[in-house]
Recover the amino acids of this structure.
């Protein structure tokens, strides 16, 4: 019965979403308070039923109910409990349900956290989120029902894709979705502001903590995905410019531009149009990412589920949501430039540069990702432009950002002098030049890219530190406003990330060897001794496990046990690399193939990856900055002025209703 | 009108996506002006023996398949099993043309996934591939014993295309149905 109950719960959730979307919208148009007041209870009801459906699907996995088709396809009686739970979002239908759950969770949070907002505005925000919910619940019910029965039911299931049987993949999708879906809040605020027709700074201020929070989750999600690809795919790479990776990176770029643009609108009242557009873009790119991943229009190493009819649904939905929002923007965006004027050298100018470069970078990634599609549309078939394009373009577009970033915090709003700012940046400049010099001497093989990268990273870190301590010195009681601390941390994170990338990409060493037991290989000052392999049995796999002893001089640094796993249910072979992590370097071994019949001689890949951890450390710092910014108390002090008028902006809602 | 610009760009994008959707599993034969013509002349190093150069004319005398691939190309990964099957069960030798790739990356790719190719030519600059009219990777060419391109497929090979298009095209070689060059 549970599967049928789940189905019913989803239908009820859809009904609540319909109520949440259209009744408050009508109420906001007509100025009917009781209709607007329905938004909150409806959001609560929707959340409860989606959560119930999700719990039922989870219980079907935990209890191994293989009569449910989705469970049969993605689980197996040998699958350990923790992977049975994460298998809920291991494929398309379940991840869609997770989307819906997270969306209704965000809606509930907005419903609870918007009580101090003008009622009309809050009602419109919740209504827009309800419309998005309708789309996803319909998508689930019409094209991707996770509760379909499989009769007669099989004795055992197909097993979860072994690539996904991994701790990193348990939390990667929920984090990523928290980010994707979180941008729906900024989107809903933008649309509500456009609908109200009264576009001022207030809505941006209300919206900022939500944007920061979503952006922080997305950052963690992307970092986890990269970390997973690094240790699980067994090639030692951390980013592949794969369409699916790009799909998560696009909303991140737009979101990064958005949080900077929001700062300008909040503080100075300018960039209204940018902020509105970027909020629409960030969420639309999340939807576009979902479309690209789910529809099969692009081929990808990560394409776990794809289906053209589903693609058509998402495309129609994307057209409605994004097209509708952009039409609204075209009709109602601020007609005149509002807010303060600013001079050629001012913080506004620098943030404008930030927005321009991030937007162009997003466009560049989008074009590269869709290029194969464009070629296909011209009748030329499916191809891939791949890493050579992205790697080059991206460095060209991010290098200026790194150069300009430390100037931002030091530069005053409205007008400033370049000379005044430069005097403050003497110390960071010195630090950057020395770091570059040290790199050139200690690791000349890193080349211009590595040296410039390290200098750039140190420039960012030192610039942010000098700024933070300068602020602290001028404050009473050693306090830094939380927003400032958050910004400094995030910028330091970017510096750490840049150093990590520059070092890993330029001075990594790798060797591909054929090794017999007892053989030794020397890489980057470490001696790797191969002691042979043994057979190891896991819950649902059998593995050949290699044993390596790593020495530096006489000292044993690590004992590493890479595996070649054979998953019993699906017959898949998986490489489980073994890694000795460190702050300054990772030692990474993965087993290739046995090269003789006795299974003694093995193809082995050994990597020495300097500073690779810094990539994810930097990303975590960036995310932590976002989280801190979201909790800044400043956002919880609301101005009472500028309350949105409750009645009478007739023409507004009509375009949508 | 400036404010309509985002909407219009989005509309263009949506049309493109819609088109892509319709073509998600369309047949992928590309009429190439090179079909039934002499394959362009080339002289390329072998991937794992860079000092050994192979020219077009050295490959004359036997029909073969030329598969354009690169380690940075996800669709190549997708068709790899099919290419391997073709190399094992197929009637012709399969040669690889490694397109705009780093030799180390290419070797690693082969070690991870296995090497189905009887011979791999490395085209690091992509010059030869341009002569062949390659748009990107993957693409597959059928070249007959006289060095004429008889068939070309753009995009990842599928079991279906191999069965319904590639194998019939190979069979047509044997019965001597040749258009005049």
């Amino acid at each position: 019965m549970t599967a049928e109950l789940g189905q019913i719960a989803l239908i009820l959730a859809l009904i609540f979403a319909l109520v949440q979307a259209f009744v408050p919208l009508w109420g906001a148009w007509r100025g009917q308070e009781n209709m607007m007041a329905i938004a909150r209870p409806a959001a609560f009801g929707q959340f409860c039923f989606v959560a119930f459906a999700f719990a039922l699907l989870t219980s079907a996995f935990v209890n191994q109910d293989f009569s449910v088709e989705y469970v049969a396809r993605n689980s197996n009686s040998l699958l350990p409990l923790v992977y049975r739970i994460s298998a809920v979002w291991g494929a398309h239908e379940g991840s869609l349900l997770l989307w819906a759950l997270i969306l209704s969770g965000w809606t509930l949070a907005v419903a609870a956290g918007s009580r101090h907002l003008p009622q009309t505005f809050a009602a419109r925000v919740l209504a827009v989120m309800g419309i998005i919910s309708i789309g996803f619940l319909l998508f689930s019910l019409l094209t991707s029902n996770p509760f379909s029965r499989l009769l007669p039911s099989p004795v055992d299931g197909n097993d979860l894709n072994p690539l996904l049987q991994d701790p990193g993949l348990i939390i990667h999708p929920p984090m990523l979705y928290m980010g994707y879906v979180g941008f729906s809040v900024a989107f809903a605020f933008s649309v509500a502001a456009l609908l109200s027709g009264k576009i001022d700074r207030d809505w941006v201020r209300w919206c900022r903590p939500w944007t920061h929070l979503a952006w922080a989750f997305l950052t963690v999600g992307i970092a986890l995905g990269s970390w997973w690809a690094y240790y699980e795919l067994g090639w030692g790479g951390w980013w592949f410019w794969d369409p699916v990776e790009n799909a998560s990176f696009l909303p991140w770029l737009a979101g990064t531009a958005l949080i900077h643009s929001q700062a300008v609108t909040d503080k100075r009242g300018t960039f209204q149009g940018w902020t509105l557009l970027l909020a629409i873009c960030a969420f639309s790119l999340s939807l576009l990412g979902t479309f690209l991943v789910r529809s099969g229009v692009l081929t990808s190493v990560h394409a776990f589920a794809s289906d053209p009819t589903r693609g058509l649904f998402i495309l129609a939905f994307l057209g409605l949501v994004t097209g509708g929002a952009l039409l609204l923007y075209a009709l109602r965006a601020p007609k005149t430039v509002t807010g303060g004027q600013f001079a050629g050298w001012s913080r506004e100018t620098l943030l404008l540069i930030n927005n321009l470069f991030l937007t162009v970078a997003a466009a560049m990634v989008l074009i590269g990702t869709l290029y194969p599609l464009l070629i296909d549309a011209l009748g030329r078939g499916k191809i891939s432009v791949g890493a050579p394009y992205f790697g080059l373009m991206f460095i060209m577009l991010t290098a200026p950002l790194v150069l300009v970033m430390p100037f931002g915090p030091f530069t005053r709003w409205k007008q400033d002098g370049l000379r005044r700012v430069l005097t403050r940046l003497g110390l960071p400049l010195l630090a950057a030049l020395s770091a570059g010099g040290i790199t050139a001497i200690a690791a000349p093989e890193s080349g211009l890219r590595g040296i410039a990268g390290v200098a750039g990273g140190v420039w960012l870190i030192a610039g942010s530190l000098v700024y933070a301590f300068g602020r602290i010195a001028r404050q009473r009681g050693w306090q830094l406003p939380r927003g400032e601390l958050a910004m400094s941390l995030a910028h330091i994170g970017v510096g750490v990330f840049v150093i990590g990338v520059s070092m890993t990409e330029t001075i990594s060493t790798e060797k591909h060897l054929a090794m017999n037991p007892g053989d030794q290989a020397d890489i980057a000052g470490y001696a790797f001794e191969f002691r042979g392999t043994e057979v190891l049995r896991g819950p649902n796999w059998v593995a050949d496990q290699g044993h390596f002893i790593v020495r530096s001089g006489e000292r044993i640094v690590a004992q590493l046990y890479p595996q070649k796993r054979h998953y019993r249910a699906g017959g898949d072979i998986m490489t489980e690399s073994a890694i000795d992590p460190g702050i300054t370097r990772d030692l990474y071994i993965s087993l290739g193939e046995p090269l003789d019949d006795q299974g003694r001689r093995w193809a082995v890949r050994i990597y020495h990856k300097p500073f690779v951890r810094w990539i994810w450390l930097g990303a975590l710092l960036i995310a932590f900055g976002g989280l801190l910014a979201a909790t800044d108390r400043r956002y919880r002090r609301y101005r009472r002025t500028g309350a949105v008028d409750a009645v009478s902006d007739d023409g507004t809602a009509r375009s949508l209703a | 009108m400036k404010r309509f610009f985002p909407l219009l760009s989005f509309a263009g994008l949506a049309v493109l996506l819609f088109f892509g959707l319709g073509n998600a599993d369309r047949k992928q034969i590309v009429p190439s002006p090179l079909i039934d013509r002499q394959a362009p002349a080339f002289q390329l190093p072998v991937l794992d023996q860079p000092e050994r150069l192979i020219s077009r004319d050295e490959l004359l005398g036997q029909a073969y398949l030329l598969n354009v691939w690169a380690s940075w190309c996800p669709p190549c990964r997708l068709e790899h099993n099919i290419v391997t099957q073709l190399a094992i069960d197929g009637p012709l030798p399969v040669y690889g043309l490694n397109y705009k790739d780093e030799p180390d990356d290419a070797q690693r790719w082969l070690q991870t996934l296995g090497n189905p190719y009887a011979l791999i030519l490395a085209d690091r600059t992509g010059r030869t591939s341009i002569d062949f009219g390659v748009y990107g990777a993957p693409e597959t060419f059928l070249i007959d014993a006289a060095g004429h391109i008889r068939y070309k497929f753009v995009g990842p090979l599928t079991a279906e295309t191999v069965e319904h298009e590639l194998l019939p095209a190979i069979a047509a070689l044997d019965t001597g149905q040749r258009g005049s060059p």
Observations:
- Residues 300-306, 639-657 of chain A have pLDDT under 50 and may be disordered.
- The CA atoms of residues 121 and 609 of chain A lie 51 Å apart.
